[in-house]
User: Fold these one by one.
Assistant:
Number 1:
Amino acid sequence: MPSYATLAPFIVKRPWLHNLLKPVASWYANAAGYRQLGLRFDDLILEEDEDVLKAIQRLSPKESYDRVYRIRRAYQCSVSHKLLPKDQWTKPEEDVPYLSPILEQIKAEHKEKEALDSLTVIKSH
Amino acid sequence: MRRSLVESTKKKGLIESVIRRLLAVTENLPEMSSFLLRAFNHTKVKLPSQTFTRQLSTTIPLLNMFSRKALSRGAQIAARRQACLAQRRGYAAATATVTATSAPTSAPSSLTYETADVSGIKVATRDSHGPTTKLAVVAKAGTRYQPAPGLTVGLEEFAFKNTQKRSALRIVRESELLGGQLVAYHTREALVLEAKFLREDIPYFAELLAEVISETKYTTYEFHEEVERVMHLKQAKLANDVSALALDAAHSVAFHTGLGSSLYPTSSTPIKSYLSEHAIVDYAEAVYAKSNIALVGDGATTAALHRWTEQFFKKVPASPSGPLALNTKPTTYYGGEQRTAHPGGNSIVIAFPGSSFGTFKPEISVLAALLGGQSNVKWSSGFTLLSQAAATAPGVIASASNLAYSDSGLLTIQISGAAASVRKAADAAVKALKGIAEGKVSSESLTKAIAKAKFDALEASQSGVSTLLSAGSGIVHTGKPFQIAETVKSLSSVTADKLKTAAKTLIDGKATVSVVGDLHVLPYAEELGLKV
């Protein structure tokens, strides 16, 4: 479950709606501008959060290194008011979630813990 | 009056038929409900059904209790009476032989494990008819078998972590709800996953143990967040434990590799290149195979354990797979000396080749009992030679024991305390041992030592950790449990002469001396008069 309100699961479940909105979504993702800075969507997740910090810690060394590299490069672009050359833009197929699955896993852990903490034992005799 | 009697018998008949129905239903209930539980856990269910499964899990034991206690009381009482009779007879036989000749004491039958092969897994059970059960998976995976340092410890720490079916947290919470306790520990030869629980919960814990050995996920983040963290804490604790360090050093000097590899890697051991979650997965594949484990149940009926083993241990592979092979080099005794400077205390271990489980030497056991150390009575140093030696050097703790392994053993004398006192006590201990080799033992002390050795062996096999462990590691090593109690017979045959020759061969052979602490004061083996 993502950390923000979203209709995406609802839409993905319905193929006709998904096919209808997919071009719009792709247009929006490109228009958002983060791909032109060489970022992935998961790089935009707010870092100032305990769960996100934990998720970042659980990244593999390579993923973690690449993430830092992308963010530094984007920051440099932002400072110099330039976009990356077009061949370095993030391609749509590269823009895969790498952090949010881990984040979901952590949230599920919390949820399970809460459920177990507030458990009521019902005796059946 | 008469009419009411008739009515009551009618009612009784009715109740009986109802009870019979209920029994028929409840007999299959644990199986059914645990199947349901599994099904619910497996599919992602939302909260209401989760509460249902929870409710279910808490009702299983209650239902079982109900069915056992109230419904089949007659049958139960009968069964218990029979069992009691058998037990009493066993004890009576044992005491009779003791009082008659003080010769061969046979172990009571309730102390021996029955072994059987259940769908490829060796299962040992012993039923003492108590209200609780201990169930353990004993794997041939102790530190002597690990192909690289730290793997056994890593595998031990991964016990009861996330599995394919449920999270580590859920495992803990569910066992807490049933009042169970889960432990994982290792020795030099065995890795043990143990569960202690109320007798009626056996299906749940049998399933849990099977799940842990065949379906643990070994995730990277758990390795970094839990396993490594706990390992560092334990290493920090071990770094200050002088006597453990000395004993570990004695093993490494005496046996080099295999049994000599460290029981717990110290913080200075370079394990980083060997220990990772991937290496642990490989080791788990090599270790958790049907041919390499034994399931030991203490306080469980044979029928029940066999039934649940058959049902739940299906997924355990029949033979080891994966790229790693266990280090199964036979043990050789080398001997030697090792001195380690340590600011945290002083400890000395003097060791000799001892008796193993495979070839039991009764003289060594008696020798260990005669050297002793801890007094068994209050306000007296006791008859044992080490406690008398320790009495002359205040503040010293001295003890002798025979550490038995499957193919080798180590007779150790361990002394710790203030440096000067340790030196004095070590001198006295070696003198005492030489005294035994010269035959200076009174027949009275010998009798006492034999009696003590017998008591120690029988007590150890009656209760405590060592029963599960020795039964289990006996099975994985030789195919039958090490019945400590069986050895009691041969202890009576030890004579003063045999003890003398045994001690003499030890003194004449190569000793193992490991010293940890203030090396300025602590003695060399040569100063003690030992050959290394």
Number 2:
Amino acid sequence: MIQTKELSKVYRTDEVETTALNKVDIQIKEGEFVSIMGPSGCGKSTLLNILGLIDSPSSGSYQFLDTEVANFSERQRSKLRKQNIGFIFQSFNLIDELTVFENVELPLIYNQVSSSDRKKRVEETLEKMNMMHRAKHFPQQLSGGQQQRVAVARAIINDPKLILADEPTGNLDTSNGNDVMKTLVALNEAGATIVMVTHSQFCAEFGDRIIRLLDGQVVTENLLKKQKQML
Amino acid sequence: MIEHAIKLALRNFMRHKNSFFINLSGLSTGLACTLLIFLWVRDELRVDKIFENDDRLFQVMEHQDYSDGILTTNSTPGPLGMSLEEEIPEIELAATYLYPASYNLQVGEEKLRAVGTYAGKNYFKIFDYPLMTGSAVDILAGANNIAISETLAGSLFGSVEEAMGQSIEYEGSDIYSVSGVFKDLPSNSTQQFDFLLPYEPFYQENIEWMSNWESNFPNTAIRLKKGAQAAVVNGKIKDFIKGKAENSRVSLFLQSYSGRYLYGRYQNGKQVGGRIEYVWLFSLIALFILLIACINFMNLSTARASRRAKEVGVKKTIGAGKKALVIQFLSESIILSFLSLLIAVGLAGLALPQFNLITAKEIELHFDPGMIGVLVAISLITGIIAGSYPAFYLSSFRPISVLKGTLRSSMGELWVRRGLVVFQFALSFILIVAVVIVYKQIQFIQDQGPGYDKEQLVYFNRDGRLEEQSTAFFTKAKTMDGVQNISSIGHNLVGQQNNTRGVEWDGKDPEMTLLFENVRINYDLLETIGVEFKEGRSFSRSFGRDSSAVIFNEKAVEIMGMKDPIGQRVRIHGEEKEIIGVVKDFHFQSFRQEINPLFFQLSPENSWFMMASLEKGKEKKGLENLKSLYEEFNPGFAFDFEFLDEQYARQYAAEQRVASLSRYFAGFAILISCLGLFGLSVFTAERRKKEIGIRKVLGASVTQILSLLTKEFAQIVLWSILIGFPIAYVLSKNWLDRFVYRIDLAIWFFVLTAVLMILIAVVTVSSQAFQAARVDPKKYLRSE
């Protein structure tokens, strides 16, 4: 599903040149659950953003669903993104002015799903995330765990092939964090490909393998025994 | 999508009440101003466009060629209309009409004064004012016909139906019979009168002077045949009068009848605008005010961008295209603009009575489809202009930088925002300077005065028995309390009214043609109005031969090139006259014009107006006494007087209206600009709280921080003054150049305005700056 070759990202300001990613080669198959780890500033988020088609690489190749997307325009990336990728953020990134229902509904609107269909699917998804009773609330009326559940609901509403999670448990306590991990595992078992950036070794081990980054380069990749039974 | 956008817009308004309120009040004030100006402009453009054959109606105009330039006038020879109709095949109809004045009418015991004039028999065919009874064909056909207005019919006879065929006594002598009643003339008709008498009989009665092709008196209007070209007719009539009178220096041309209202100013034979300039000026002001309000919206929206950035980032990540976001932000501004429109319509409705008072109009707010269309269009355009920059700016955020929190206002945006505020304040500066200068010039005209004591002068018709017994009237009036002096004069001394080129003197260049104002007066007139003498004396009863004496103004003496004018002789219309005095120049025309040569002749019989000077502080008493004396002489006549200074001020009515209107609009412009500045200061204060916190920790005092914050805004205002200054200077100079007699464009007008603007700006931002300066540093340092 994902294949990068010598993927690099360089940030330039007037005086300084910073290499965030340095010739990264990774491969992720459909149905895999991959964790990415590394210290702050190692390029984890940059990699995730490029994989998620929010950002474009400075050089190298990125094949997403067998298509070379490294040189895609913003418009092309946007189109591909909204159909195939769901995002979960550390800080939830819900829109404060919209209710739970409307936040979850948003991707469907941008994918031009009809209004009756939208209602059905949002309800189903909220039901699945056990958030239906909060549908009319605004994000600031919810706890962190609840907000993240809404964010997850929003990420999966479109049945994306790829789910990208950027420290999804970073702002949550252990119990809420575990809930989110459970959900991700369930989604993975249902067929979704998941790439997750995390600082927590514990969370990382829910994945099939861990990619470790240091200074913009992949240092190790280790396959894991499944830890799902721990939950 | 749209539904989502609307919902989000409304919630955003609710959440950010401050900026919503600032935007709403700014935009609605701006829209209200624009709406009022739109109504005014529309009304101006519709003046006289009330006749069915508007495109075929023309006023016959004259260019009169003199040594000192071409004078353009609508006064024409008396027989012109009749001859044009006969001789020029393209002309279907012509009507001659005189300038309306106030006359005494009497029916039985009912006496009143009404405004009327003489008009040719085709008048109602050309100007199709709706008739209630009578027909356009013969309403003015009979020698004793009188056409009266609906209101006049009501006050004289009780109703329109009663009026037909009834008799009316005119000026205490002639009897006319009502041949028709016309509807009261609409306020957007430049001709205004209560009754019309037939012109042709009047012409016959006065044929001796009315038939003279070289004298100009009535107006002539014509209607062209269908398909006839005005240009062709212009070619044919150009030398029409020269064909009738060999010595004539007049060339004729047609001006569109409805066009003459807006395009009425001629300079040396060239059309140089007129009221249309004010139409443009106010349209521009409306646009400026709206722009200023739009800029507020742009500034506040982009300043608040960081708060919206997350929303944009998330939406883009999820898959929102730029287009969807642009639509969302644009609909937000358009919704705001329509909300403002609702308030603006209310505000305009409230302001309309006052607005009508200032503009001397009768504008009403009617919501016909056309009007609604215009309102919707204005709001839509306003919404789009106001929303465009924020929409494209916000929607172009890169989601990655938003979500990473690295979004920072670039210097570029900061400059755009400052630039917009500079633009706003530059506009406000120009408007304020304009207001100050227009005000000073009008005040200058008022203070300077014409050169005689216009304040206490009152004049009224010398009619009825006063025509015969004026001397008795004078004798009695002079003894009355409150009356200082009284005499009579041919016309009221405001504007060029009676001029002649029949002045000859020794050594005059035979080629030279010059117009002299010819004022016929009675004894004591010059003393009554208080004109100052440069040399010589006034007319006096102690000199028997003063009927062959003449008094010139300085300008006339200068033009005639006389060293010692007193005692010299000139010929006026061939008659020998001796110069007995020279008066100092005074303004009998508007300050726009150079003072022209003028002479006074003693001619009590042709002095049709009584002119009295009242004692200062006893004006009321004096007037009452004059009124009772007048009624004693003229029982049943209504005493209809006018103060000369009111008539004098009327020459500048347009300027005065512009002055007071621009005062209001400049006020609104600065108010809206300040709203924006205030909004921006709220934002800046908030944005810089952390910086202020650090500064305070490092030992900055409240005063230092205060000056830090205010300085930024003061600089913006300074820039706007720098930009506004040259533009304001050029515009004011242009306007002042229209006046031959004008104030100097002093630098202090600009300095004063500048100081005022800086003061206003500082006051506007200081409350926020003060609040920010007093922040508790630890509170804001902790938050990041």
Number 3:
Amino acid sequence: MRYVYWGLALFLALIIQSRLSLLGVSPNLTVLLAYFAGIRYGNTKGLFIGALIGAIEDSVSSSFLGPHMLSKGIVGYAASFMISGGFFRWTPVLGMILLSVLTLTDNAIGFISRTLFDKMPDALSTMFFISIMQSLLNAPAGIFLRPSDEE
Amino acid sequence: MPKRHTLVFFLFIIASFILMTFQSKWGYTFHDNIFYVILNYSNEVIHSTADAFKQPFRRMALRDEENQKLQDRINNLLLKNEQHKETILENKRLRNLLKLHDNSQGYVATAEIIARGLHSLKDTLIINKGANHGIKKNMVAITPKGLAGKIVAVTDSYADLLLMTDINFSASVRLQESRKEGIVSGTGTGKCVLKYVPFGEEVHTGDIVVTSGLDQFFPRGIPVGYIAKLERKEKRGHFQYIEVVPFQDDKKLEEVIIIQ
């Protein structure tokens, strides 16, 4: 049943990402899923679930397989490493900050991967603007997405 | 344990790099996969459903816009129609004046009423012609309907027209049918009275009053008005009380011909 929920959540995230935009910027909701997987299931599972989410996102984004897979995998791993690994103790504010930073990281990794292995997907300033917007949009979710031991 | 996790992490990164390097070298064909098809099909369904909901509102908005445009157009046409009506009426009035001009002896000028007189207790109007156009004091103002008044003050470019209904206005008149004489005077209330008609004289309502020319101011035969009310009671004095309604309503006066 859990896989069905995850599948449904991913499906909804991808649908919403493809249909909504604010100032021309689509939200980056798959980061939320990778982040949630990391803080709930630990770093290895977070890494693999994030990578799987990223791989599916890559496969639907008319791009080559890898950039999203790598970035989401890292997000899943890093989320778990920061929260469950004992780096920080989770608080709502920390959740917001961490989610913003991880959204920025996700975009940066995706951008660098594409630039290295394919071609530069966009101007640096545009990427910067999109990343800031997406991290601001994602930040409030950091309050609600909490580790299981904080519920 | 942590070392194993770190190892897995680095292996994942290396694997990703290998995968991307491989694709950048040999190309990639992941577009036509099941996720891509499902997502796009879902998007299409959502889009068409949303469109089906939006369509009636969009149509309504378009109709509203079109209605607004048509309403504006109707308003413009109505305005133009009113302007045309006004032009037709002005044309008619000017034709009548022209006819009167041709028939009037002693024609001096045709003038337009430009304002009411500044004296609030006097029924006067200001006309746009004055001494420069040959107008002098005591000249007579007429319209196609009849007598309008007389000139009481003149400047170079303008003149004051005293209306028949003013209390200071008097003219020598006679009844058109019976040829009885009298003096018509204003009352200040929009009507005039015919004075100095004895009780013995037969006068009827509806009788037409015209100028007699005996006062040396008003040429004879100009229509003045008709008798609207009669009182033959002797307690009012030696003469009948006769109310005359002028043919020319001073509220509707727009152009006059000045004659001498």
Number 4:
Amino acid sequence: MCLKYMFTNYKILTRVAFRIVLFLLFIEIFLRFDGWISLVLQENRNKSNLKGLNTYRIICIGDSNTALGGDESFPSQLDVVLNKLDTKRKYEVINKGLPAADSTEIVDNVEELINEYKPNMIVSMMGANDRNDLTKEDPVFILISRLKVFKLAQGVFLRLLYFKSDKGINQLLLERALVQKNNITVKKQEVIERKAVDPQYVKMLFLGLKMLEVKDYVKAEVIFKSLVSQDLDIIFLDRAYKELGNSLKAQGKINELINVFKYQFERDEFSVFATDEIRELCSNKKAVYETEQLLLSLLEIKPDRENINGLLGACYAEWGDDVKAEKYLSKVREIRRNAVNVASKKNYLRLAEILKKNKIKGIFVQYPMLSMENLEILFNEMDDSYDFILVDNLENFKEALNPEKYKEYFSDRSLNDRGHCTLKGNFILAENVAKVILNSFK
Amino acid sequence: MLFNSVEFLIFFTIVYSLYLILNFKWQNRMLLVASYVFYGFWDWRFLSLIIFSTIVDYCCGLYIAETDDVKKKKKLLLISIFMNLALLGFFKYFNFFAGSLIKLFSLFGVSLKLQYLNVILPVGISFYTFQTLSYTFDIYKGQLKPTKKFFDFALFVAFFPQLVAGPIERAKCLLPQILEPRSVTLNKFYEGCFLVFWGLFEKIFISGNLAKIVDPVFVSGEHKGSEVMVALYAFAFQILCDFDGYSNIARGLGKVMGFELMINFNLPYFATNPSDFWKRWHISLSTWLKDYLYIPLGGNKVSNLITYRNLAITMLLGGLWHGAAWTFVVWGAYQGILLMAHRKVSSIRIFDFLKNRFFIVKLFVFFHLVVLGWLFFRAQNMAQVMRMLHSIVFSLDLDGNTLVLFQRFLLVVLPLLIVQIGQYKKNDLMFLFHGHWFIKTFAYALMTYLILGYGVLTAEEFIYFQF
């Protein structure tokens, strides 16, 4: 009824439309004003924090996760923690977080900050606000997506969508930004149920290890083979397979060894043992056919496995088949391109470049509760001449996975760039980063 | 289902779409089903209580109107009262009275063995029992004709917008609106939306944020007097916004469907004396108590002493209505004493010069008296009341932290104060709605921003649900 009435009254319709636009404009102004106020307050805090010339100066750059929280923010707490843990040196942490900024905006400011503050170290936590496909979007959409009102609406929509979830709007936005826009299908954390291991099997494992030690590989092989045929706890089974691999390798039973690799790659996509061993086999040009078959069969099941493609490419290169090597290596590059957030990667590289040029140490922090892979993947192609350290925050926020505990770490009232870490969450973040910083001096 | 939940948003969207499509007859049936679904969402077992109450009063109403025998009429009315109060007494007050009796006897060294009941308080029971009671009362007094349409009567009892926390509607007002077709106009729709929005703002932004100031103070044992003061100021506005917010949402929801529900709060903190306050605070309850308790007791048409007695009874029971605890009884007594004192003072000639003068002073003084009353209301027990009063009087200790707390309180309450001053000056509760479109748009945007940015969106129950 209302709709019919409205459609027959063109005037009313335009008036309503005008008011809606005005309404959104007001909200945009409020959001920006709010951001501006918090920046002014932050600048005041920074000035009162400047302690003098003989201090180790750290600048924290990032988005709202860094910027907001006042004395409870993660940089403020980092200042306190560092000065408490290391009394020999004086630390001064400057918060230069920009609410709602994407990595382009953040990195754009870095050189200016370096000139102004002459810091010894820069700590960054950024990328949450990046859009992956910036180049493909049409300019109108980019403009709209830069509006804070748009983000707010997105957040509200997500909150409605996940209304049963305990997460705040900001947390939902962040997860979406990092997981969906990066195009990375984050593996669901496999829940490994651990079974109690029969003491008899433990004894067998130790016996097998002893056999390896005394180089009785035949006996070791028998023991580990009988172990892997049992219904065992998965972690225990992995260990048994690894040792079986070692005893087979020592005897040169390569065909059987390759079966062990197969098991390991099926269990764990990034099995370090299998990867290293296969590399060695390839460079020694041993069991070329079997290795090739194994890797191809793995790719048949899942063609997009970056490490297997890379391994196969590298092996072909070792075996002298450059055409095939290029085929698989280009596939790897393609997978990486798709998986990586273009904007984040570009800006992280820019940041690393700036830091290298200015000889400043960089600490790149991953957001709490997000997998390290998402960050590591950005630096895949970089050499060792860059001086930066990545900081993982998955383990220390593990407890927050529990919905009961969640609220202790993350504030729930959040939207429009309110920080999502609580005092406690920021403290844990600060403590972790502080430890990494102090370790880096050793 | 709470008004500030996504479940309710989905629920109401469906109900309202159906409401607009269906014709009058089916509208009422659909609303009845929706109301039962809404109520059953808490606990479907509660439905039996509301249906029981509905049947009792439906029958009593019909029989009272049918018979001419005054004695029989009275008997039927008493049955209705007894049934409803028994329900209320059993579910709400049994444990309270049992506990109090045990304590009383233990004072004399007698240990009384009474079984406590393991019942939960059915949501809104105090509201709908009073609402159905008013129906039989009015029929008894000959002011209302009973309805024969059972389902319509059932809808009157269970109408979901005001079912769980009022306003306590009178049959005289609500029943005719159920029996006759209603019209939904665009203006009513706008007004209703505004009321819902304003109510949500009051609940989510103001009340939610004030709760964060109030709760820590009342949970913790040791506090400075100044902190207690700020917490009490904050609670005064928290409970106002919580309850007024709910009433506004209820009225708004009614309005978009063409129903007019009564105004439940009319700027209570602009009252300058207790009698004025009770004309502004929880109007549907205070007029109920006046019409069905105070006046039948004799009201003020009797000797002074009996009037005071009537006031005392009304306010004590009014206090107890709010909750089964001695703190509520004390709060009722306190309000009763204020009313009696005001009555006494205004009957003395010397104080005549006070009339119509010193508005601000009177407002200030009376507001603080009300705030003091909220201490009884909010405290967990009388020991806490005494501790807090002691700290206010003997260790006020104003320091920086308290000032920050007070600042936060002022910031949260500021939008409400601005609107209320406007409402008072213009003598129009819908003053914001009737304002210039530019200001209105600005206000809508600001409220949206504050709700989304700073609102407390956790599913917290409305305070008054427990009554």
